[in-house]
Amino acid sequence: MLAGITYAQAKETANALGIHAEDTALWSDTEYVRQLLRAFDIKAGPTQTPFDTWESLPDKALLAIKWRMEQGRPFWHWVVFVRSEQEAVVLDSKKSLKTNTRRVFGRIKPKWFIRID
Question: pTM score, two decimals?
Answer without folding.
Answer: 0.87
